[in-house]
Amino acid sequence: MIDLFSDTQTRPTPGMREAMARAEVGDEQSGSDPSTNALCERVAAMLGLEAGVFMPSGTMCNLASILVHTRRGDEIIVDDQSHIYNTEAAGAAALGGVSVRALPTRVGLFTAEAVAAAIRAPQRTAPRSSLVSIEQTTSFSGGTVWDLAEMRRIRDVAQARGLVAHIDGARLLNAVAATGIPAADYARGFDSAWIDLSKGLGCPVGAVLCGSSAFVEAAWQWKYRLGGAMRQSGVLAAAGLYALDHHLDRLAQDNANAARLHRAVADLPGLGFDPTAGQSNILYFSVEGLGITAAAFAAACLEEGVRVRALGTHHIRATTHLDVSETEIEQASAVLRATALAFAARD
Ligand SMILES: Cc1ncc(COP(=O)(O)O)c(C=O)c1O
């Protein structure tokens, strides 16, 4: 099967497994796991931020950031397609007592003006707006790459009004590969930012959350409270270090493969693409024009050996990654084409 369900579906390569087996380890909780420390320093330097903390998941990075940056009764601003809003089990509300203001978007992008309008004026009756989060790249709305200038305008509007600015960088490195803009340029001036190791980088586990030393210290306390503090985490961190050495440069191939897939199906009747389609390693399109559900389209592709993800009633997401070769992309393109044409012919 060619698995385009998500870039989380990769398996650790033999080289990565070997690096994990050889990892130098210590006790992470007491700050003495050398591999974890090395990984955190490396990612913090890459993002141009002061310090970093290793987390079991990106979800915990978002949650710990929210818990550090907000008080109970606050409101945070995100996009309506965001991971924080849709698929983190309302962690911000459940653990932080924080409500989420989800800005309506088409492809996960909003503007500084929309943020300015959404920030609440201080009032006894209103929640305090305290954080704005940008997802670079957008996940559920198709891997759209945020424009750096817009990100900075949003950061500035937020900070000028007393909010903190956060980057959910689950796929920040795919944006870097797409634009050539260094991660540190994207993260500059943001109060917190993180990258996932278990997506395009191909690690089995982990993410690194960065910010100022004071922020990371506070995030560490939440990591303990949430049960995310580890012991010999160097085994996992070694996978991250290996990935930064061996898998970072090849993220451009994943982006190119998504663009290849896009070119192969862009002209098909019944498929709907946003102008931003295929910007990074995710291809997102609507099958509404075929008069079928996304679930029916995904099931038909699966029968032909290609796994894609149905999102909502009409959208399909296909994500490229380390374990999908260019040849497999050609094969997947043929399956997607044949499937769409077969449904179109039924009308
Ligand atoms: C944009 C975004 N944020 C956060 C996450 C959560 O990351 P993790 O699966 O490591 O918890 C994901 C995972 O799919 C994501 O796509």
Could you provide a short overview of the structure?
It contains 14 helices and 13 strands. The chain has 347 residues and is an alpha/beta fold. The mean pLDDT is 97.
Characterization of this structure:
This protein is an alpha/beta fold and 347 residues long. The chain has two domains: 13-246, 3-Layer(aba) Sandwich (Aspartate Aminotransferase, domain 2); 250-345, Aspartate Aminotransferase, domain 1. It contains 14 helices and 13 strands. The protein has helices at 14-21, 34-47, 58-69, 83-86, 91-96, 112-118, 148-160, 172-179, 183-187, 213-225, 234-246, 251-265, 294-303, 326-346; strands at residues 2-3, 51-55, 74-79, 99-103, 128-135, 164-169, 192-196, 207-211, 272-273, 282-286, 306-307, 309-311, 315-319. The strands form three sheets. The chain has a seven-stranded mixed beta sheet with strand order 2-8-7-6-5-3-4, with helices on both faces. A four-stranded antiparallel beta sheet has the order 9-10-13-12. The chain has a two-stranded parallel sheet with strand order 1-11. A hairpin with an 8-residue loop joins strand 9 and strand 10 (282-286). Helix 2 (34-47) crosses helix 11, helix 8 (172-179) crosses helix 12 and helix 12 (251-265) packs parallel to helix 14 (326-346). The longest helix is centred in the C-terminal third of the chain and has 21 residues, at 326-346. It is globular. The two termini are 29 Å apart.
